[in-house]
C-alpha cells in the first residue's frame, strides 16, 4: 500500500515542474510535487531572476552614459548594496511564498528527495529520515541540471563559485576569475565588472558564446574588452590553488591570474544521477530522451526541462511543461492529443528556440545560425544590417553599435534564424520567433510595416538587403 495516491507526481518544483503540476491539476487531475531544496527551483533563486536583478541596473547605467544630457546627470557608480537589497526582494532564499502558492492551487508539496521505486512509483525521503511512498498514474521528472566541474587540478579544494554563489553574492569581490565564456560566464562578467570587480574571463574556445552567430561573439568580445574585462580566448585553466586569501589560476599559456574568487561557468549536466532510474532500466546521470509529447517510457514516465533533451532555458522548459500537462490530461481522459502536438510543436522545440543574453550589448537570437542551417542540409542565404544605421537605434544611444541578421531558407522562402546584437534588443526577438515558428514567407513580411522611428525598422532594411 502507498502512503499517497495521485494522478500525477512531479519530481522537481522549479518553474517547469510547477507548470506541469498546475496545468494538469487545473484540468482535473490530482497532483503532488516533490522538492528537496527550494520551491521555485534554480531559476527563481540562482539563475534567471537574480542574475537579471544584478544585470539590469548595470545595463541601465551603461545606457545613461551613451545619452548626452543624461550622462552628465548620472555620475558616480552603481550602488552595490542597494542593488543587492533589490535582488533579495526578487530572489531571497525564502520559498514560503511559492510553497503557499502550491498549497493554494491544490497541489500537494512533499519536501524531500524523490526517487523512482519502479513503474508508477516514487519514494520520497524527508530531512528527518522518514519516507513517503507515492503511487501515481504518471511520473514527471523535472529535476533540472547542475554545474559541471572540469577536471582541473585543485579545483575541488578552492571553494569555487558556481552560478549559485555568484547570483546570491552578499558582497562584491575586488576581483573575479570566470572559467567559461558561455551565457553564464559572459553575463556574470558583465554584472561583476559593472559593479566594480576586476574580471578575467577564461574561455577554452576561440570565441565567446559559441552557439550564436560568430559576429555576436566578436562584438561581445570587443565590448567586454573595451570596458576593461580581461578576456582570454583559446585558453584553458590547468590548475588552481588558494594562496594568501586569493585564488591563483594557472593557465595553459604559462601565465597565472590572481583573484579574490573563482566562478566556474563551464556548462551543466542533467540532475538525474540519484533518481532511481535504474529501477526502470534507464541510465542514471543522463538526459532523459523524451519525444515531442515529453514521453520517456510507455504512457507513464515523462521528462521536461533540463533533465530532458531540449534547450536548457526556462521558457522552453515551461513550454514543454504546458505540453506535458495537456498530454497527461488527454491520456487520463482517453482523448486525442490534438493538433498542437504536431509539426509546430516540433518546430518550436528543435528549430525555433529563442534566447536573450543580457550582456552589454544584449544578444537576442532565435532559430538556426547560418552554420547550423547548412549543417542541417538547408540551402540558405544570410544577410545582415548595421543597427546603428537605423534611425530608431541612433536615437536610442549615441554611437550605437549593433547588428541584425536573418537566415533564409531559399527553397521555402522562409526565415529559419535571426540574431540581434545591441543595446535594448531583447524584446525584438519575439517578432522573429513568430516569423520562424509561423514559417511566414519573406515576401509576406514585406507588408509587415515597422513603426518609425523604432529599431524594428531594421526588418525593412534586412528585407531590402535580401533583395525584395
UniProtKB/TrEMBL annotation:
Pfam families: Pyr_redox_2, Pyr_redox_dim. Residues 353-459 form the Pyridine nucleotide-disulphide oxidoreductase dimerisation domain. It is an enzyme of class 1 (oxidoreductase). Keywords: FAD, Flavoprotein, NAD, Oxidoreductase. Residues 7-320 form the FAD/NAD(P)-binding domain. InterPro entries: Class-I_Pyr_Nuc-Dis_Oxidored (IPR050151), FAD/NAD-bd_sf (IPR036188), FAD/NAD-binding_dom (IPR023753), FAD/NAD-linked_Rdtase_dimer_sf (IPR016156), Pyr_nuc-diS_OxRdtase (IPR001100), Pyr_nucl-diS_OxRdtase_dimer (IPR004099). It comes from the Bacteria. SUPFAM superfamilies: FAD/NAD(P)-binding domain, FAD/NAD-linked reductases, dimerisation (C-terminal) domain. One of its GO terms (molecular function) is oxidoreductase activity. Its EC number is 1.-.-.-. Its cofactor is FAD. Belongs to the class-I pyridine nucleotide-disulfide oxidoreductase family. This is NAD(P)/FAD-dependent oxidoreductase.
Amino acid at each position: 500500500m502507498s502512503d499517497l495516491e495521485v494522478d500525477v507526481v512531479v519530481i522537481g518544483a522549479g518553474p517547469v515542474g510547477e507548470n506541469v503540476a498546475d496545468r494538469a491539476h487545473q484540468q482535473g487531475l490530482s497532483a503532488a510535487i516533490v522538492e528537496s531544496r527550494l520551491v521555485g527551483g534554480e531559476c527563481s533563486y540562482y539563475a534567471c531572476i537574480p542574475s537579471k536583478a544584478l544585470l539590469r541596473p548595470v545595463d541601465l547605467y551603461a545606457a545613461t552614459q551613451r545619452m548626452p544630457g543624461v550622462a552628465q546627470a548620472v555620475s558616480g557608480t552603481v550602488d552595490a548594496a542597494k542593488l543587492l537589497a533589490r535582488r533579495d526582494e526578487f530572489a531571497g532564499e525564502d520559498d514560503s511564498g511559492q510553497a503557499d502558492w502550491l498549497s493554494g492551487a491544490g497541489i500537494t508539496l512533499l519536501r524531500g528527495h524523490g526517487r523512482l521505486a519502479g513503474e508508477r512509483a516514487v519514494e520520497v525521503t524527508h530531512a528527518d529520515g522518514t519516507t513517503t511512498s507515492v503511487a501515481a498514474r504518471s511520473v514527471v521528472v523535472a529535476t533540472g541540471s547542475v554545474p559541471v566541474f572540469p577536471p582541473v587540478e585543485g579545483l575541488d579544494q578552492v571553494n569555487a563559485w558556481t552560478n549559485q554563489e555568484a547570483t546570491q553574492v552578499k558582497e562584491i569581490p575586488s576581483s573575479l576569475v570566470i572559467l567559461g565564456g558561455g551565457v553564464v560566464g559572459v553575463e556574470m562578467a558583465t554584472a561583476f565588472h559593472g559593479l566594480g570587480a576586476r574580471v578575467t574571463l577564461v574561455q577554452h574556445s576561440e570565441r565567446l558564446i559559441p552557439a550564436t552567430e560568430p559576429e555576436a561573439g566578436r562584438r561581445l568580445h570587443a565590448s567586454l574588452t573595451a570596458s576593461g574585462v580581461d578576456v582570454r580566448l583559446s585558453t584553458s585553466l590547468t590548475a588552481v590553488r588558494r594562496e594568501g586569501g586569493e585564488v591563483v589560476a594557472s593557465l595553459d599559456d604559462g601565465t597565472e591570474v590572481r583573484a579574490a574568487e573563482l566562478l566556474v561557468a563551464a556548462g551543466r549536466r542533467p540532475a538525474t544521477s540519484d533518481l532511481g532510474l535504474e529501477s526502470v532500466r534507464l541510465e542514471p546521470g543522463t538526459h532523459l530522451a523524451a519525444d515531442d509529447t515529453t514521453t520517456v517510457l510507455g504512457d507513464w514516465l515523462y521528462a521536461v526541462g533540463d533533465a530532458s533533451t531540449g534547450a536548457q532555458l526556462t521558457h522552453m522548459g515551461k513550454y514543454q511543461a504546458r505540453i506535458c500537462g495537456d498530454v497527461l490530461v488527454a491520456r487520463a481522459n482517453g482523448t486525442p492529443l490534438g493538433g498542437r502536438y504536431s509539426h509546430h510543436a516540433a518546430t518550436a522545440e528543435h528549430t525555433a528556440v529563442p534566447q536573450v543574453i543580457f550582456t552589454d550589448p544584449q544578444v537576442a537570437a532565435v532559430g538556426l545560425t547560418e552554420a547550423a542551417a547548412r549543417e542541417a542540409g538547408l540551402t540558405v542565404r544570410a544577410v545582415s544590417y548595421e543597427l546603428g544605421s537605423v534611425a530608431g537605434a541612433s536615437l536610442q544611444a549615441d554611437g550605437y553599435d549593433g547588428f541584425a541578421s536573418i537566415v533564409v531558407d531559399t527553397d521555402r522562402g522562409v526565415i529559419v534564424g535571426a540574431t540581434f546584437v545591441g543595446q535594448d534588443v531583447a524584446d525584438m526577438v519575439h517578432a522573429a520567433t513568430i516569423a520562424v515558428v509561423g514559417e511566414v514567407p519573406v515576401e509576406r513580411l514585406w507588408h509587415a510595416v515597422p513603426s518609425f522611428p523604432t529599431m524594428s525598422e531594421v526588418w525593412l532594411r534586412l528585407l531590402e538587403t535580401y533583395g525584395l
